[in-house]
Design a protein that fits this description.
It is built from 23 helices and 14 strands. The chain has three domains: about 30-325, ABC transporter involved in vitamin B12 uptake, BtuC; about 345-430 and about 520-600, P-loop containing nucleotide triphosphate hydrolases (Rossmann fold, 3-Layer(aba) Sandwich); about 440-515, no CATH class. By secondary structure, the chain is an alpha/beta fold. It has helices at about 5-25, 25-50, 60-75, 90-115, 120-140, 165-185, 190-195, 200-205, 210-235, 245-260, 265-290, 295-310, 315-325, 390-400, 420-425, 445-450, 460-465, 470-485, 500-515, 530-545, 560, 580-585, 590-595; strands at about 150, 155, 160, 240, 350-360, 365-375, 380-385, 405-410, 415, 430, 520-525, 550-555, 565-570, 575-580. About 55% of the residues lie in helices and about 10% in strands. Strand 11, helix 20 and strand 12 (about 550-555) form a beta-alpha-beta unit.
Length: about 600
C-alpha cells in the first residue's frame, strides 16, 4: 500500500508543474492546457450547482457567452452609450461589467427557473440556454453568426498577453482562485447550508436554512465562473461567434463535471482534462479507424457517460484518489472559541405550545380533525396512536412544514400557522424526522453544525475568503458540545452515513439541540435503538426536561413512552380520543380498543 501524501505536497507538486509547463511544452499542448483551464472554470461552477446543490443546468455555455460578448463589445465598439463609455476599451473594466451583467441576468433567470423542480428545472435551463444562444447570433451589434473580431489582448501593468503561453498563467490563476474560494465556501456555515439542499428542503428549512437563497447563491456563483471563463476565452481567441455557446457545449460542460466527480471541487479539473484530451485524441484517431470524417467522438462520449453513470456515479475522482492517496485533514476544534449565546428558556410550567382545533384536509381526506394539545416548559408530552392516525401530519402543522386548513397554532404566545418552518425554527422550535434526514457523506460534526446555522450570520463573501473563521470555530464547538451531550463523541469525525440507524437518530437530536430550542419535536426517536441506547436517550430527555425544555414526542414503543413522559395525547383517525397521565391513558377503554389491543 502506497503511503498517503499530504495535501500540501500534492498541491505544491501540481503548482510546480503548472509553472514550468509553458516553458517546456510545445505551443499545441499549452493551448490544450489553456482550454482545460477555461472548461474547468465552468465545470467548477457546475460542481457547486449540480454536484453539491443538486440543481441540474444545461445552460452554462450561455453564461460563458455573456462574459465573452460583453468584453468583445466593450473593447471593440467605437461608440458606446454615455453611461457605459467609462468601460470602453479596457478588458479589466469589461470584466467588471460582464460579471455585474451576468449576475443580474442569472438572478432574473434563477428567479424564474429555480422555482421549478424535478425534470422541469433542467428543461427550464435548456429553454433559456437556447434563447441566449440564438440571441447572440441574431443581434447585429454582436456581429450575428459571423461574430466580432479585433478583440484586444489583456494587459497586465502594460504587458500584453498576446499568445497562449502568456495568458496561460492568468487562466490558471483564475481557476485556482475559484477552486480556493469554492473550497472555503463549502467549508463554512454557508457551505453547509448549500450542501443541506441535497438532504431535502424540509430538513434544511427546519434547521433555519433559507433554501431559496441558497439555491440562488450557487446559481449566480456558477454563472459568474462561466462569465469569467468567457472573458478569458474572448481575449485568448481575440474573436467570438455564437458557436462555442450553444446547448451542445452546455451539455459537454455538465459531462465534464459528472465524469470528474460532480461532488468534488478538484473533480472539475479532472473531468475537464479527461474530456478535452480524450476529445482531441478521438478526433485524430477515430476518422482513421472508420475511414471517414465525422463526429464519432460524440458517440464515444455518449457510451462513456452511460458506463460512468452505471459503474462510477461518483465520477473518476475517487478512482484517481486511490492511485494518489492524500492524507485526509481532520477538522480541528478551537477550545478557546467563545461559546455561542443562548436564549433564555421560558419559566417551568409556562405553556409554550398550544394547538387549538387544528384541522387539515387533503381533498376529501381529513388527516387532522379539530386536534388540540398543549406543551409546557419542562414537560414531555407524548403523542401516540396507530399507524395512519395523523401524528406526523400534526407534527407538520405545528412545525410549519404544512398549514392547517383551519384552527390555530400558538408558539410562545404568537400565532405561527402558515409562517413556515424556517421562521418557526428561529423562534426556538426544533425537530427530528420519522425518516432520518442526514447528509451521509458529511461528518457527524458537520451534520450537527447545520443545526446551528441560524446562530451565525457570516455570508458568502466572508466564507469564500476565510473571514468567518472566528464564527466558524464557535459553531463547530457548539456542534461538538451537543455531540458529546448525546454520547456520540467517539464518532464526531466519522461520516454520518457510516453510523447505525439508532445512532443516526441520536445524531438528529444533537442537530436539533444545536439550534438552541426551547421546544423539541421528536418523531419516533427510539426507533432502531437497542435497550441500552433507549435508556441513554431517556436519560438525556429527562435531563433536557430538567433544564426547562418542552418536548413533544411521537413514539410507538409504549414501554419507552410510559416510563418517561408526563402526559399523553392519543389520536385515532386524525382526532384526539384521550388525554391524561400515562397510567390513566393505559386504563382508558377507548385507547385499549384503538391502540393497545382492545378490552378483554
Amino acid at each position: 500500500m502506497k503511503p498517503a501524501l499530504s495535501a500540501r505536497s500534492v498541491l505544491g507538486s501540481f503548482l510546480a508543474l503548472l509553472l514550468v509547463a509553458p516553458l517546456v511544452m510545445p505551443p499545441f499542448y499549452v493551448t490544450l492546457l489553456n482550454y482545460i483551464g477555461l472548461y474547468a472554470l465552468v465545470a467548477l461552477g457546475l460542481v457547486l450547482l449540480t454536484g453539491v446543490g443538486g440543481l441540474t443546468s444545461f445552460g452554462q455555455a450561455a453564461f460563458v457567452g455573456l462574459g465573452a460578448y460583453t468584453t468583445a463589445v466593450l473593447t471593440t465598439a467605437t461608440e458606446l452609450p454615455a453611461w457605459l463609455a467609462w468601460a470602453g476599451g479596457s478588458p479589466w473594466l469589461a470584466l467588471f461589467v460582464g460579471l455585474a451583467f451576468t449576475a443580474t441576468v442569472a438572478f432574473v433567470l434563477g428567479s424564474l427557473t429555480l422555482r421549478l423542480s424535478g425534470h422541469y428545472l433542467p428543461l427550464g435551463t435548456i429553454a433559456w440556454g437556447i434563447s441566449l444562444y440564438f440571441l447572440f447570433g441574431t443581434l447585429e451589434t454582436l456581429g450575428g453568426h459571423t461574430g466580432l473580431t479585433g478583440i484586444p489582448p489583456i494587459a497586465i501593468f502594460g504587458y500584453e498577453l498576446t499568445d497562449g503561453s502568456q495568458i496561460f498563467y492568468l487562466i490558471w490563476a483564475f481557476l485556482l482562485l475559484a477552486v480556493f474560494t469554492t473550497q472555503n465556501l463549502l467549508d463554512s456555515r454557508e457551505g453547509r447550508a448549500i450542501r443541506a439542499l441535497k438532504g431535502g428542503m424540509v430538513m434544511a428549512e427546519a434547521m433555519g436554512v433559507d433554501t431559496a437563497r441558497a439555491r440562488m447563491v450557487i446559481f449566480v456563483i456558477a454563472a459568474l465562473h462561466a462569465c469569467a471563463s468567457g472573458w478569458l476565452y474572448a481575449h485568448m481567441q481575440r474573436f467570438v461567434n455564437p458557436t462555442p455557446f450553444g446547448l451542445h457545449i452546455g451539455i459537454e460542460y455538465l459531462f465534464m463535471a459528472v465524469v470528474g466527480g460532480a461532488g468534488q471541487v478538484w473533480g472539475a479539473l479532472l473531468g475537464a482534462g479527461v474530456i478535452t484530451i480524450a476529445k482531441q485524441w478521438l478526433q485524430d484517431i477515430l476518422p482513421r479507424i472508420f475511414g471517414q470524417s465525422g463526429n464519432f467522438e460524440v458517440i464515444f462520449f455518449g457510451l462513456m457517460m452511460i458506463i460512468i453513470l452505471q459503474r462510477a456515479r461518483e465520477g473518476l475522482w475517487p478512482l484517481f484518489a486511490r492511485f494518489v492517496p492524500v492524507k485526509a485533514t481532520q477538522r480541528t476544534l478551537d477550545a478557546a472559541a467563545e461559546p455561542l449565546p443562548r436564549k433564555p428558556l421560558p419559566a417551568r410550567g409556562d405553556v409554550i405550545l398550544e394547538a387549538k382545533d387544528v384541522t387539515r384536509k387533503f381533498g376529501g381526506l381529513v388527516a387532522n380533525n379539530a386536534m388540540s394539545l398543549t406543551v409546557k416548559a419542562g414537560e414531555i408530552l407524548a403523542l401516540i396512536g396507530p399507524n395512519g392516525a395523523g401524528k406526523s401530519t400534526m407534527f407538520n402543522q405545528i412545525s410549519g412544514v404544512d398549514t392547517p386548513t383551519s384552527g390555530e397554532v400558538l408558539f410562545l404566545g404568537r400565532p405561527v400557522a402558515g409562517r413556515g418552518s424556517r421562521a418557526i425554527a428561529r423562534m426556538g422550535m426544533s425537530r427530528t424526522f420519522q425518516h432520518v434526514k442526514l447528509l451521509p457523506t458529511m461528518s457527524v460534526l458537520e451534520n450537527v453544525a447545520i443545526g446551528a446555522h441560524m446562530r451565525g450570520d457570516k455570508g458568502v463573501f466572508p466564507a469564500a475568503w476565510r473571514m468567518d473563521r472566528a464564527e466558524e470555530a464557535r459553531l463547530l464547538n457548539e456542534a461538538a458540545r451537543q455531540i458529546e451531550r448525546v454520547g456520540l463523541a467517539e464518532h464526531m469525525f466519522d461520516a454520518a452515513g457510516s453510523l447505525a440507524l439508532g445512532q443516526q437518530r441520536i445524531l438528529e437530536i444533537a442537530r436539533a439541540l444545536a439550534a438552541d430550542p426551547c421546544l423539541l419535536l421528536l418523531d419516533e426517536p427510539a426507533a432502531g435503538l437497542r435497550f441500552k441506547e433507549k435508556q441513554a436517550l431517556a436519560e438525556l430527555l429527562r435531563k433536557l426536561r430538567g433544564e426547562g425544555m418542552g418536548i413533544l414526542l411521537v413514539e410507538h414503543d409504549m414501554d419507552f413512552v410510559m416510563g418517561l413522559v408526563d402526559r399523553v395525547v392519543v389520536m385515532e383517525f386524525g382526532q384526539k380520543i384521550a388525554e391524561g397521565l400515562p397510567e390513566e391513558v393505559q386504563q382508558n377503554p377507548a385507547v385499549l380498543e384503538a391502540y393497545l389491543g382492545g378490552v378483554e
